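Quick entry, no commentary yet.
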Amino acid sequence: MRAGRYVQQLKGYRAFIPASLPPVPPVRLEGELTALLSEATLALGRLDGAGSILPNPDLFVSMYVRQEAVLSSQIEGTQSTLEDVLEYEMDAQGPKRSKDAEEVVNYVRAMNHGLQRLSALPLSLRLLREIHGRLMHGGRGSERNPGEFRTSQNWIGPQGCSLVSATFVPPPPHDMVTALDNLEKFLHEPGNLPVLIQCGLAHAQFETIHPFLDGNGRVGRLLITLLLCERRILERPLLYLSVFLKAHRQEYYDRLTAIRTEGDWEGWLRFFLRGVAEVSGAATRTARSILKLREETRQKLADSPLGGRLLDSLFERPVLSVRAAEEHLGCSYGTASALIEQMERMGVLRETTGQKRNRLYRYEPYLALFEQQGVDTETAAPPPPSAEAGRP
């Protein structure tokens, strides 16, 4: 009863009706939970400070948004890598165009839209609908009412299961509307709860309500970062938990289930705060590594003004072609080609196609800093145990 209750429906299945936030009795901020809250808050502060020391923090943020988009989408079953997305952004109509990459790019657009809108619109149900509309535009699930809350029952369970045999059934539409209204009130009036506790409660509640026919996981993960930015805990959107949730996917599902079956908000919050501390620490180390890499590479290119200019662009677009370098630098094709060859010999760039024409090059050391975050999760995370509304 602390988190809600299962209610038998006329059609023979049980749906979960969540209780309003904050929980009653209140979250017990004591012992290990208090220690984890302090650790996570400190780590988040260090991350915010580390972001500010970068020469151009916005370039760092744009790469982090892309990497989060990749990992969050992989949790939902897409197969695109960070490099796939960067190549797609270069040529959306090219031979490597894929629906998976398109979905990830939509995620990036949805995140950027949400962050831009926060300056004029509070974090609200309206903003969540706008974000969902951009997330689902043109990709898989685009037929499932993008930007609109569901008006039919959905469920979570193994592919082919029914409402009766589903692993979890969210509230029916009429109860969903009430639950969403309560969630919005909590977002606007959280009381005296610490912001990180509010983030953890809001994310879990959103996933329980499951208000869209598709895309709930991705929108729910975006909600965490948007809350931190709206509350000015982070000046820039640098915290993304998908790498942690992907590595601990089964525990993530188990902790959400324990909220619904046992009212165990504290167990979920301990898990959530561990993730915040771990991911914040890793992102802080990445920011410092980027600063060191930038200085080392600039020293290598000290005698090449064009090389320095191209290097700056690589922190935003770390995959490029000779033609792209030519256009960016405003030089001849031959000059751009010679510069890229020089940077390839230095180990700054690596050719990825193996072709003689239409070659692509990647800023190898820079991309490696981001890609390493997802490497260990490939074997650590089991395949998704359930499908949303029967979705494969």
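second:
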Amino acid sequence: MGIIVAITGATGAIYGVRLLEFLKRLTIESHLVVSQWAMETLRLETAYSFAELQTLVTHVYNNNELGAAIASGSFKTAGMVIAPCSMKTLAAVSCGFSTNLILRAADVTVKEGRKLILVTRETPLSSIHLENMLRLSRLGVVMMPPMPAFYNKPASIDDLVDQHAGRILDRLGIEHNFIQRWQ
């Protein structure tokens, strides 16, 4: 079973990209949905084009394609990661407001009891953000804002991004050797 990866317009598009690179290296089926603002963030923050991103995945869906396979609970997946996850997306998932494919796929992931990981990107966090996170956490959704680890003595931003993407794989239960572990 594959993993759904959604990229929203929050800063940190590289987290979603790196996760897709790792999934490809592990030959794990991946289903990608990218929001309109994520396209802009991808262009502003990375050297990747959307065309290059598409070469990393098994399936690509348009965010307006509410009839896509991943919008149905009968379509089996091993889980979904939204990386990065904007506060707008967090709020919509928290309220079950499924107006696009990213939100519908997240809603389905929650209702089917599958793993949903949100790589939330915002600082400082308001009480509204925290309440939305708490509501979803109580449903089993995992909040994984990028928190850099320094025990591995990162030498670059890539090292920090790799560490977080590797921890996402860990949380999904996917075996890999992409990161340095605590010794």
